[in-house]
Amino acid sequence: MNDKRLIAYFEENDFHLDFEGRGNTEPREEKLYRDFTENKYETLFLFGFQDLDDHSTDSLKFLHDISLRLIDKITHKADIEFTREETDLSFTDDELKEILDNVPFLLGAKHLNNTWLENVFFQLSIEFSNIIKNYSGTVQEFLSEQKLGLTVRGRVFFHLVENKLDAMPFAFLATYSSSSDNKRVNHIPLKSALLEYKGQTEKLLELLSTVSRAMQKSELISDLVESGELFSPLKFSAEDAYCFLKEIPIYEEAGIICRIPDWWKRKYNRISLGVSIGKTGESRVGQNAILSFDTYIALGGEPLTTQEIEFLLQQTEGLVYLKGKWVEVDHKKLQQVLEMMETAESFADDGYIDFFAALRLEMDAAKQLGLPQDLIEVKHGDWLKKLLDRIKNPELIKSISPGDSFQAKLRPYQHIGLDWLHLMIKLGFGACLADDMGLGKTVQIIALLEHLRITTPLDKPSLLVLPASLLWNWKSELDRFAPLLAYEVLHGKGEYIIDPKVNLYITTYTMVTKLDVIKDVNWSILILDEAQAIKNPAAKQTKAVKSLKADSRIALTGTPIENHLSDLWSLFDFLNCGLLGTVREFKTLADQLRRSQDAFGKLRTAVSPFILRRLKTDKTIIDDLPDKIEIKAYTNLSKKQVVLYQKFVKDLEKRLEDSEGIDRKGLILGSLIKLKQICNHPDHFLGGTEYNATHSGKFSQLQEICETIYQNRERVLIFTQFKEIIDPLDQFLETIFERKGLVLHGSTQVKKRKELVERFSSDEYVPYMILSLKAGGVGLNLTKANHVIHFDRWWNPAVENQATDRAFRIGQTKNVIVHKFITSNTIEEKIDLMIEDKVKLAANIFDSSGENWITEMSDEELINMFRLAGDAL
To answer: In angstroms, what CA-CA distances link 872 with 303, 636, 792, 823, 835?
Structure first.
């Protein structure tokens, strides 16, 4: 299916199934998609009965596994023929944790939690109940219709319990499930069946059919049936119990449900090779940290003494009571563990191992030490455990201050981010700040830089690498929040010299491949914004970034790795080189993950200490955030826009000299419109049709924001005051979201408006709606969107707020992020500053007169306002 494939993605309390480009998909996937849009939970439930092919994506496999788990729960309910639609199919916390611990790296995986899983399983249970309620046959007949060979477990149960106070230390009982008059299910000793079904040979044989199947493969059960002992409570010796426990797979295959002690079921009391890493560690940490490495023979994770090991070797195979636990004595496994101790010890260098090697061992100990997975246990020693606990619980880190010169008040979660970043730098680890879009990653980094400026002697500068479209955003926020922090921009042609007295240098990913001067510097901190730019390890840009030298490394991204394991390796090859091994070693691990998803949990455990991820959907974050987050998204003029803008202002200066009165007023207001058009796109001003995205800073900015929105499967409203740019925007956004969105403007009929709103508000994933400000600014309820983009500014706060309120209103369950596009160094930025500073204007002036105030300026004031400022990057 290549890229034209089904993918799963998740929202806060829901999920959808959709296509990445629905052209050329196979008929099966097309049908699945159609069914899913009509009834997602019924489709998901029935999906579990289907077989997947080898080309199915991890997302699809995960949803299939969800359904399979529910179906498996159904087949293991021996009383389901009695309870039918009233069957309890709920999952325990342990079962939910197992699923969450081993979720693949999926788009939308950030939304997966206990609440999400409980809701999905609840809805799937309802679908099963509705189907069975209206189904005339048995549950077994329904399952057989869906998939040949799928059977409900029989009604017979085998119970084995400990009886420690007796010479015979175990007790055995066979029971069967039976329904009472009030539909409650009772478990009755099997001997009662002989009386209940006396004279009903056929029903008795049906009940005992599972026992009959078990007799064919089990000498123990065969003897118990023939002697009649199976129908009475029995005392078992340790030898009998061991024989029974080893044969459990036979009984379960026959359809008998076994209730046994947890220590056997979960292998609590197994003999294994124990590895303790980091009982002690050197004071220096980071990539060069050295940790202690100790091996021992363990029983249920607890070390055994030499005498206890000798005792086990002297016992015959079976169950032995040791240290208050029943232990399986398997001489072959015990000898294997003893032989491998020497191999394991040689893995370390004189009993020590480096930090990242320790974490890699935890991910894949069996392969690295040459032992079966069930014979090895890796534990953190006290020193390592305390260190990782500090990193994993940032709210407990000692707080630092960004200083009095820092001109912003950090929100509590942002202060925690500052503390965590500072700790990671002190410890010598690379760190990924992966907060959701809108939670303020930039301000946290600026706070860190300002703290270091005040507290650390400046001997070398830091370097920030970012996409060119974000240059002005960073410059604006640095000037605003840290006016005393010295920074320089390395962008464009020119000869640059690195001055150690400068706190921060800023450059772009493109310039990294061109600037030799930055390659010779050992930077204090190397910071990557939009770090997904280095996700391709083979790209020239990625290699150039990774070749830079720095004491500390920080990556910022609102879309952390959720879909491609190669992205994860590339990010950590930059942050903490060696943690995930070489490309070849990680490829081997990735292949293992694809074969067995159980290993995903270990990979997450290894990387999670180095990623700080906060979500807008997190209740602890929502309670702290405003309902509406406003972000000024600064954009740059392209070269073509600069030329058009400068020429227009020059011509306007001449025309103003010859105009007066109402003509002058009309000329000024008309010029405002023209300059806005130039800021939008050269073709908007010139009447062109190509609309090449590289010719407009706003189009580039729009692409970056919307790619993140698409990654998170969120929705966005885009407002513009120009109807003529709506179609070009629509065509552009379709290429980003890989599907059509909706448009609404003044020519849209009233009936059509209602249909558009209903479609946007439906479960179908409609990622965007473009609206003209006047037509879409009032009267619409579009709370499915949690992003609003003002592509061009109306410069009237009341009008803009009315438009934003299409998403930010009653019914909205998420925080709304408002992106206000401002073209740097142009009339757009200058007017925005005037609004913010309230130098000449107040909100009530805008509300009453719109843009008319600008016509009262003198010619000189007008030209100074229109003229490009600075170098118009």
So the answer is: 68, 7, 18, 9, 21
DSSP summary character for residue 316 = P
Q: How far apart are CA 266 and CA 269, in angstroms?
A: 9
Q: DSSP readout, 415-438?
A: HHHHHHHHHHHHHT--EEE-PPTT
Model confidence pLDDT, tens digit, residues 198-246: 889 888 898 899 999 999 999 999 999 999 999 999 999 999 999 999 9
Q: d(Cα 379, Cα 377) in Å, to the nearest integer?
A: 7
Query: Residue 502: in which H helix or E strand, if any?
Result: none
Q: Is 489 left (phi over 0), alpha (psi -120 to 50) or beta?
A: beta
Encoding tokens for residue 65? 């596994």
Bridge partners of residue 156, in order along the sequence: 176
What band does 550 get if pLDDT is binned at 50, 70 and 90? very high
Q: Is the per-residue pLDDT at 563 higher than 70?
A: no
3-state SS class at 699: helix
In 10 A of CB 785, how many CB atoms?
26
Q: Which two tokens stand for residue 734?
A: 């379709």
Residue pair 738/765 in contact by the 8 Å Cβ criterion = no
CA distance 127 to 70: 11
pLDDT band at residue 597 using 50, 70 and 90 as cut-offs: low
Backbone torsions φ then ψ of 256, nearest 5 degrees: -90, 135
- The DSSP secondary-structure symbol of 104 reads -
Buried b vs exposed e over 175-192: b needs ≥16 C-beta within 10 Å?
bbbbeeeeeebeeeebbe
pLDDT in tens, 312-338: 888 888 999 888 888 888 888 888 888
- The SS3 assignment for 701 reads helix
In sequence order, which ranges of 458-521 are alpha helices (DSSP H)? 471-481, 509-512
Alpha-carbon distance values, 851 to 47, 260, 371 (Å): 58, 79, 75
SS3 160: strand
Whether the Cβ atoms of residue 636 and residue 459 lie closer than 8 Å to each other: no
> Each residue of 690-743: pLDDT tens digit?
999 999 999 999 999 999 898 888 999 999 999 999 999 999 999 999 899 999
- Neighbouring CB atoms inside 10 A of 86's CB total 11
The helix or strand, by DSSP H or E, that contains position 141, with its residue range, turns out to be helix 139-146
One-letter amino acid at 786 equals N
Does residue 715 contact residue 766 with C-beta atoms inside 8 Å? yes
Cα–Cα nearest to 738, from 13, 10, 7: 7
Tokens of 859: 């010619």
3 state DSSP class of 240: helix
Phi, psi angles (nearest 5°) of residue 6:
-75, 140
Q: Model's pTM, two decimal places?
A: 0.81
> What are the strands, taking DSSP E only, across 355-424?
376-380
Distance from C-alpha of 666 to C-alpha of 652, rounded to nearest angstrom: 12
Q: What's the DSSP call for residue 533? A: G
What are the tokens at 63? 């949803």
Q: Nearest to residue 524, comparing CAs of 504, 506, 538?
A: 504
How big is the chain by its Cα radius of gyration, in Å? 34
Place of tokens 């150039």: 544
What pLDDT, on the 0 to 100 scale, is given for residue 851? 58
Q: Encoding tokens for residue 282?
A: 């050197």
